[in-house]
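Database export, one record per block. Field names are fixed; values are copied verbatim from the stored entry.
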Amino acid sequence: MRRAIPAYDLLDEAALARIERQADWILDEIGIEFRDDPEALSLFEAAGARVAGERVRFEPGLARALCASAPKQFRMEGRDPASAVTLGGDHVVLMPAYGPPFVTDRERGRRYATIEDFRNFVKLTYASPWLNHGGGTLCEPVDLPVNKRHLDMVYAHLRHSTKPFMGAVTAPERAEDSIAMARLAFGAEALETRCVIQGNVNVNSPLVYDSVMTGALKAYARARQSVVISPFILGGAMGPVTQPALLAQSHAEAMAGIALSQLVRKGAPVVYGNFLTTMDLKSGAPTFGTPEALLSTFAIAQLCRRLCLPLRCGGQLTASKLADGQAMQESATSMLAGVLAGSNFVFHAAGWLEGGLTIGYEKFVMDLDHCGMMLRLMAGLTVDEDALAAEAYREAGPGQAFLGTAHTLAHVETANYQSSLADTASFEQWSELGRQDMEQRATRLWQEMLAGSQAPPLDAGVEEALQDFMARRKAALPDRWH
């Protein structure tokens, strides 16, 4: 999946430079706190930053310089070499929703997610031609102990998919477990030369990294595996309400985390992430698809390109609780902004509802259909002799239909994107078929996808090694539910 259309540049050079100066000012005067992590503080101090307590301050330009060793793009592999993706450049990688504790579907409603739901979404992601990354915590399986569920989640990714995926970040030891399982699946030496697993590291905005996140960051970076550094900012709560201030803050927070990854291991693959949106200033609720958030998406992409790093943007985001008109309006708008901004890695491309609290089965496949449309958009137009269709004009002539021409018949399956869910029948045909809306059609589709899913082959020795590792780790730890 590669982009053939240009990215949209919103800001001119003067505006970008001013935001970068403000980010440097934040890093220099205000600083970033790295809590309960003496190693991180020592690394920064040795690199020339000013450390006072847990506050780290950077001279203007220092954080940017430390980020310079991160690769401009890198390859990430799955169990099947055909599933490999490249992050950066003109490559586009889509992954499903990440982190919801709840799931919903039209028949059973909203409920806490289970490991069965988790496996279902791994299978749906694997079955989709539009998602080329398996994601991470597609939903939180709350029926398993907090301190052990990561083992089952990583195993589900490895057993039911061959696509690249993310491991745990909720504790440093869980990140280490995830990496250990990747070594069992890919080979003990493979991780030294290949990126096969990632961690998603969220900043505790404003301007704080805690030891859980930096511990996970260091684990993946030391293993030469990828981290996605993602400031999480709701304007008015984790930063000022004005977008330029939020852009500078997000840029500062991202650079500080990327710098740490490079101090841990120079050249470790990293993705410049962001989660920057607005909030309802009357209620405090997060809002998505707003004009202000879309403008920030365009601007943050430009700031990332000036660092020459792969860019992560949000995908089909919505505050709606249902797969309704609000959900699709907000989701389509958010997704389009990320696409036009030039995102390399789109998080939450399928399933997101309720501000990220819920992943929906119907919403998932509705979003998949829209992902296909967006990928077709990014493929752009090819202008050549065949596309200009001179022979079709000769065959049809003035006043005649083109439907029966040889050119039309040769392109009937590929000329236009063919939706798996949209209804184009007449009103009478639609009525005869039960007057189903898109959500009803989506129910049928995801159920058919799951019924037809088949797990890809997994080497018996790898299967045995993974099961043994999981059993030993679970036996060594008492269950914890919080």
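Remark 1: The domain at 67-378 is CATH 3.20.20.480 (TIM Barrel).
Remark 2: Residues 33 and 55 are 4 Å apart (CA to CA).
End of record.
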